[in-house]
């Protein structure tokens, strides 16, 4: 089993504020890291193996303050679906978890934003999720009870409707 769960997220006021280096840095961490780690792991993974990628609700809803992050998470969605099809014949499942607003260190990038903006980041449940609330989704996708699931996304986002 491989779980890809690394992420870089930086906020920008506008597209003009995103440097080439910042754009590349987001893709290096969020997308290239998954690609190279997965490629290396597949050399050792056989039938019954599984890969679980971490995307984001932003891949489905967009986020105007997180354009590079949102773009990389969208790329992960496409990669997960394509890889699931590619690995069917090898008996390896590939799925993903798409967290919504989760209270983690990555959220500290918004420390300079006003209270109203932070309130709007909360889910329809009126709060941010806790990291422990993500664990069951990963465990389910890793276990044999999900052996008929591949190329899919579990949205753990407090009721944010994604239509995706």
From TrEMBL:
PROSITE patterns: ADH_SHORT. Pfam families: adh_short_C2. Keywords: Oxidoreductase. InterPro entries: NAD(P)-bd_dom_sf (IPR036291), Sc_DH/Rdtase_CS (IPR020904), SDR_fam (IPR002347). The keyword Oxidoreductase applies. One of its GO terms (molecular function) is oxidoreductase activity, acting on CH-OH group of donors. Belongs to the short-chain dehydrogenases/reductases (SDR) family. This is Enoyl-ACP reductase-like protein.
């Amino acid at each position: 089993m491989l779980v890809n769960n690394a992420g870089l997220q930086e906020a920008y006021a506008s597209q003009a504020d995103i440097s080439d280096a910042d754009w590349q840095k987001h893709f290096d961490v969020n997308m290239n890291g998954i690609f190279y780690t997965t490629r290396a792991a597949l050399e050792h993974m056989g039938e019954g193996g599984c890969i679980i990628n971490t995307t984001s609700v932003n891949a489905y809803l967009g986020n105007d303050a997180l354009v590079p992050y949102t773009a990389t998470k969208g790329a992960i969605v496409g990669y997960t679906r394509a890889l699931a099809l590619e690995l069917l014949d090898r008996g390896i499942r590939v799925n993903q978890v798409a967290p919504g607003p989760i209270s983690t260190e990555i959220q500290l990038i918004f420390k300079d934003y006003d209270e109203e903006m932070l309130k709007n980041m909360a889910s329809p449940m009126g709060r941010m999720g806790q990291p422990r609330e993500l664990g069951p989704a990963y465990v389910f996708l890793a276990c044999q009870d999900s052996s008929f699931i591949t190329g899919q996304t579990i949205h753990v986002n407090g009721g944010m409707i994604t239509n995706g």
